[in-house]
């Protein structure tokens, strides 16, 4: 089952203006994400999907495969689905969505999501990591609870599972998992996802993964030991640049441009 990794890179981020083109280690952030995904060798092909000529030109100048997509897409998922419909990618059975602001994404998270789909466990795969119980109360931490077979029951910004009695904290701790926003899909599941209108649960929680879940599509969750966050703010970018030289020499074969 060939895998196509698509990196959505929208220029119009508000918290970090022109995010894909901001420099990390002297290269645009989107280039660093492409290098990382390529180096991890979880996909048979990697392509950037953007809505802006500036991002397209930056990628093309470095020999990075890039597709200019519609500027009307509401999410990266819609952008990935547009790329998947292009004839040149028709032979790719699994689509892997890697956010364009995650240059430190782990192999475990990507391979875990892909493994869910390739194994037939579920038509959509994603990943989660254990977090401290204190994270339950942060709406910025998206929590997921799963069946014993590893399929998502629900995603929420609210504290799930909810600790009703303090004496049960020891049972709660191993159940708290933070969702990591990487997705793998079968071609059919991806196109179903984007054809459905946003679901009320999705709109209330501001979590698009509730759309396929509400429609009955299974989402398999790969549990991985740890994962890095994305780059959303100026402070995130400063921290990322401060650690880049160490990371790029210790990470598995970061591909040059």
Structure description:
The protein has helices at residues 29-40, 53-61, 76-84, 107-118, 169-172, 187-195, 200-205, 210-214, 234-250, and strands at 3-9, 23-24, 27-28, 45-50, 66-68, 94-97, 124-130, 143-146, 152-156, 177-186, 219-223. By secondary structure, it is α/β, with parallel strands linked by helices. Strands 5-4-1-6-10-7-11 form a 7-stranded mixed sheet, with helices on both faces. It has a two-stranded antiparallel ribbon with strand order 2-3. The chain has a two-stranded antiparallel sheet with strand order 8-9. Helix 2 links the parallel strand 4 (45-50) and strand 5 (66-68). The protein is globular, with a radius of gyration of 18 Å. The chain starts with a strand and ends in a 7-residue tail after the last helix.
Class inferred from helices and paired strands: alpha/beta
Strand order of the largest sheet: 5-4-1-6-10-7-11
| Cα shape | globular
Overall residue-averaged pLDDT value: 93
Enumerate the spans where pLDDT stays under 50 for 5 or more consecutive residues: none
């Amino acid at each position: 089952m060939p895998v196509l990794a698509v990196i959505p890179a929208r220029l119009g981020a508000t918290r970090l203006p022109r995010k894909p083109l901001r420099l990390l280690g002297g290269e645009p952030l989107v280039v660093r994400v492409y290098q990382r995904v390529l180096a991890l060798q979880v996909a048979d092909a990697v392509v950037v999907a953007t809505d802006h000529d500036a991002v397209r030109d930056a990628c093309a100048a470095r020999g990075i495969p890039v597709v200019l997509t519609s500027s009307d897409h509401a999410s990266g998922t819609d952008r990935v689905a547009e790329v998947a419909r292009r004839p040149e990618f028709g032979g790719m059975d699994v689509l892997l969505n890697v956010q364009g602001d995650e240059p430190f994404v782990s192999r475990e998270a990507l391979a875990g999501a892909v493994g869910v789909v390739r194994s037939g466990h579920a038509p959509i795969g994603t990943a989660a990591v254990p977090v401290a119980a204190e994270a339950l109360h942060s709406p910025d931490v998206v929590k997921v609870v799963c069946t014993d077979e590893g399929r998502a029951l629900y995603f929420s910004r609210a504290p799930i599972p909810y600790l009703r009695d303090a004496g049960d904290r020891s049972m709660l701790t191993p159940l708290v998992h933070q969702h990591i926003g990487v997705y793998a899909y079968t071609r059919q599941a991806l196109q179903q996802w984007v054809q459905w209108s946003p679901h009320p649960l999705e709109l209330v929680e501001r979590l698009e993964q509730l759309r396929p879940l509400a429609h009955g599509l299974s989402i398999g969750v790969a549990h991985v030991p740890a994962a890095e966050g994305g780059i959303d703010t100026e402070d995130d970018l400063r921290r990322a640049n401060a650690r880049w030289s160490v990371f790029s020499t210790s990470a598995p074969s970061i591909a040059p441009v």
